[in-house]
Design brief:
Belongs to the CcmC/CycZ/HelC family. Keywords: Cytochrome c-type biogenesis, Membrane, Transmembrane, Transmembrane helix. The chain is built from six helices and no strands. The chain is mainly α. It is globular and about 60 Å long.
Length: 232
């Protein structure tokens, strides 16, 4: 039986929404106005300050889902399955953001929107397919407990895809046109680093608020189904 979880106080919600809104708006304006322009790419390089933070969140999501799934396998509490599902939902949304913003940046930097030889691009596409498979198989299983158990094992597949995506530009000798890790030595001026870290913070706040809202929605849906089953 899942323990009852009290929703957060509305005042906390308001403060959290305010922090997310202000940080996102501030991060967007700073990315447009503050860092210097890369001459080879022009203004289009500013999509970097969206692309990289969103990619980070897209890689964290499957890892969180895997941790929640492991806890579910040990405790058999559906709360953890719901948290895992929510994390993968958001990972998929942010991964789509990466696939949308990446070709725009790639076209300005490489002259082509999609380089088939680039390891990071291909691995991110595989990550999206892994997450999509997770949702499809989860939808096809009618039993709630069987759905949770299958989803837990599929979360491992998504987590492996996320790790391979992270390591694509680190472990492969010739990964393609994609630049190396932004955390490597050199490569970025101080204004670019400051703007990037501001974006990372803002989009992590966005992930947290969306995680909270999505989890609440899933809980309400489960309560609705339970009430319908009891009435029938």
């Amino acid at each position: 039986m899942e323990r009852k979880i009290q929703l957060l106080h509305p005042a906390f919600d308001f403060v959290f929404y305010l922090v997310v809104t202000i940080s996102l708006v501030f991060a967007v304006f700073v990315s447009i106005l503050y860092p210097n322009v890369i001459l080879e790419q022009g203004l289009s390089h500013r999509i970097f300050y969206l692309h990289v933070p969103v990619a980070w969140v897209a890689l964290y999501g499957p890892m969180l889902s895997f941790v929640f799934s492991l806890v579910y396998l040990f405790q058999k509490n559906l709360l953890w399955d719901r948290l895992a599902f929510t994390a993968n939902q958001l990972a998929f949304v942010f991964a789509l953001g990466v696939l949308f913003s990446g070709p725009i940046w790639a076209y300005s930097a490489w002259g082509v929107p999609w380089d088939k030889t680039d390891a990071r691009l291909q691995s991110f596409f595989i990550l999206c397919l892994s997450l999509l498979s997770y949702f499809i198989f989860r939808y096809l299983v009618p039993s709630r407990k069987k759905k949770a158990i299958l989803s837990a094992y599929l979360s491992l597949l998504c987590a492996v895809s996320a790790v391979l995506t992270w390591g694509a530009i680190r472990w492969i000798e010739n990964p393609g046109n994609h630049p190396g890790s932004v955390l490597g030595k050199g490569g970025m001026d101080s204004d670019m680093k400051q703007t990037m870290w501001l974006g990372v913070l803002a989009y992590h706040f966005l992930f947290l608020i969306l995680f909270l809202l999505s989890n609440r929605n899933e809980k309400l849906q489960e309560l609705k189904h339970t009430l319908r089953a009891e009435m029938d």
